[in-house]
Amino acid sequence: MQRAPWLVIGAFALAVVGSVVYAVENLGIRGDVDSLFATDIPFRVAERAYYEAFPDQFENLFVVIDGVTPERAGVAAKALADRLREDHRNFHQVFLPGGGEFFERNAFLYLDTPDLEELADRLAQAQPYLAAISRDGSLQALASIMARGARAVREGDVEGNQLSAMYERAAQALAARREGRSYQVSWAEVLASRDLGGDPHRRVLMVQPVQDVNDLQPARAAILAVRAAAKELGLGAASGVTVRITGDAALTYEEMEVVKDQAVASGVASLLLVGVLLVGGLRSARMVLSTLATLVVSLVLTVGFTALFIGHYNMISAAFAVLNIGLGVEFAIHLLMRLQEILAEGQPFDRALRATAGDVGTSLALSAITTAIGFFAFVGTEFVGVAELGVISGAGTLIGFFCTVTLLPALISISRRPETRVTFGDAVWTTRLVDLPVRHPRAVRFGAVALTIGSVLVLPRAHFDNNPLNVRDPKSESVRALSDLLDRGATSPWSLNAVSPDLASAEALAERLRAVPEVGQVVTVTDFVPGDQEAKLGIIEDMGIFLGPLTPAEGGPPKTSVETRVASLRHLSDELRHLLRVPTDPALARSAEALAGELDAYLASLPPGDAADTELDALQESVLGSLPEQLRILDAALGAGHVTLENLPRALVEQMVADNGHVRVQIFPRENLSDHSSLAQFVDGVKAAVPDVSITGSASEIVESGRSVVRSLRQALMLAVGAITVILLILSGGRVLETALVLAPLVLAGIFTAATAVLLDIPFNFADVIVLPLLLGMGVDSGIHLVHRARQTGELGIALLGTSTARAVAFSGINTIASFGTLGLASHRGLATLGQMLTLGVAFSLLTTLIVLPVLIPSRWRRAGLTRSQA
């Protein structure tokens, strides 16, 4: 390399250009989550069969719409659904559960008969007020009606509990106006005289996006289209509506946005830190620049390798560069520090370079092989995402080694200017750091045994967290929205599905599942056909007779003067004061007293002139803004008819019955599934209850994919340990002791890392599962270098730790810790735990190698080294 450096550099330049050109033409990105796992795993096979029967359920977005009132949420959801259905380029299907004309018309049929009778009684008593307010939906008309109601209660003509809800919400609206807060009275809740069950202020659209699988964010266009549609419709905080997007596709989209930004930031930070540390450690501008250039070339060649042999990156393997930055400089550090040590002895540059290759070439090659094995260990496992990362990074390690022993010598050889010699005697910090442990080997051995025993006792508490939300950025919209939905177990998006060949078998299966303790609700298509329809339709018909048409007046409420509206509010306050002087219902008394107090405070704070007119208009909108929509819904519900399987909405039926007649059975949990143990119990409980039925769904996919990762981890660990051990034995000529000495620090580091992660509450998850096999591949390098140096030279104890080899081990470890440590500071929890686990692992590997390993090397090696030296 030193004889023809420009030829070597030219060859690499051509290879870099070729890699870039080929990668641009052939390298793609697979952003779909399904590509992360092997297709022949049982849960994937079942999942594929389910989605073939119900393709509309695949990779849906959940558009979560929250309104200040149920009416506002309903109107916004309908408008957004209609707009998205027009966009066939970005959406396959848009489904609004429980929404649309059919459910508005037949809403009363879905109430239990006693609840419908109670509602009918309340509406009958409220009919005079509803009729009046529908004709004149103005603030003064409402104030007059509420005043008339207070007088009627005082005279015994009306039951007081019918007015409590109206008074209470009017008081809340007045308080909000005085305090400058946004508030909207829900007339659905007023008419129900109570808070509605479930979550009436929320609607959820199920949207199936058109996805581009060649994009790292396949649903990008669809998600942007949802946001654009919401903006065009004016759906935002100013309108009392919030629109959030979640679901697997949205989680992937935001995940990659965050990962891309933070991985790039971490990569830049890593390069800067590595550069600074290289300057401090090598103290040679030529060597630092040559090392960084070699690192960049190896990364580009790795990209070319990926394009040629894999053809794409996935969500995990796209982060390979961050790992390779931390690992790629290690070979250069060992080579260059040994070169500097020989130069410090007075050797000329050419001879020193050849001597360096002879001294560290074997250990560097062995290190490259063992590090690659740490990555390759995942190849062949079910976890394809990490397997592809293993192939890419394993190949990148070997490419990095090849560049280090070819390109790096060529780069530092092109200048014949004498290299600055580094005096190693002044670098005493490493020696001082480990001086005390080396001088007290028994204490080191005892401490290592004690810490190992303590760590082993902690290890049973280590666990794999299969909740995918716990590896994502908790501040992202999709994570927060999904967490909110998970709080509602009965309608959780993490549900299960089963498919039966016909309706009868589906109903039988549903009955079996309803007996499972972990199950909160089971739904089939027949559950959308209300029971007791004849009785309910009779009640609805009577309601239609006494309520009559409730259509608001055209043109909106009449405009009246400020004085008229203020007078009506003062009159209402007076009537409430009269009401409070007589015995009445306690709930009504509390709400009437609150409303009277708020009226007095509001009127006292009312601004003068035109500002008063504007403020009263705003109060009218706050109190009565939702009334026209509620009257329309109420009027529509009075037109209910018989509901059968045949007249259910087509969109609903397509969600529940496949084209071949197979029937879907939806299974919802009883508990909140944000806790991973509850999620596993739900899935396992359902599968144990119906072992003869194929169960799929997002809850099953999460649990089973987590178990697949754990199996892959175990397989990779066994393969890595076995392969590294065999290679060490072969290359050491079958010397068991030498192999054991190399592996001992790794075993200790792995145990300490896992135990510390437990104590720091850092679980194993989808992001950091690769750490332990990777730690074997990375950590074995240091042991190889030190054992090789001790075996060849006989340097032990302080002498060994004072060599360039020990300094290179320490320096490369510090570089790696600095590089991976930047990930540990990320707000994205997956990147953060990966960085934290890697930092812990490398730190423990460094400590066990520099402190424990030297006291384990037998003293007889000193005599062997002296003999070889004398020879």
Structure notes:
With 871 residues, this protein is mainly alpha-helical. The chain contains 32 helices and 10 strands. Helix 12 runs parallel beside helix 14 and helix 27 runs antiparallel to helix 28. It starts with a helix and ends with a helix. The C terminus is likely disordered.
Total DSSP helices: 32
Strand line-up of the largest beta sheet: 3-4-2-5
Q: Structural class of the secondary elements?
A: mainly alpha
Low-confidence regions: 420-430, 864-871
Q: How many β strands by DSSP?
A: 10
| Share in helix | 55-70%
Largest sheet: 4 strands, antiparallel
List keywords for this structure.
four-stranded antiparallel sheet, 871 residues, 65% helix, mainly alpha
How would the blueprint of this fold be written?
Layout: H1 5-26, E1 28-29, H2 42-53, E2 61-67, H3 70-85, E3 91-95, H4 101-105, H5 113-135, H6 139-154, H7 164-179, H8 187-192, E4 202-209, H9 220-232, E5 241-246, H10 248-282, H11 285-309, E6 312-313, H12 320-344, H13 349-376, H14 384-413, H15 429-439, H16 441-458, H17 477-486, E7 496-500, H18 503-514, E8 519-523, H19 533-547, H20 562-579, H21 586-605, H22 610-624, H23 627-637, H24 650-656, E9 663-669, H25 676-689, E10 695-696, H26 698-731, H27 736-759, H28 771-793, H29 797-801, H30 804-824, H31 829-856, H32 860-870
Parallel strand pairs: 1-6
Antiparallel strand pairs: 2-4, 2-5, 3-4, 7-9, 7-10, 8-9
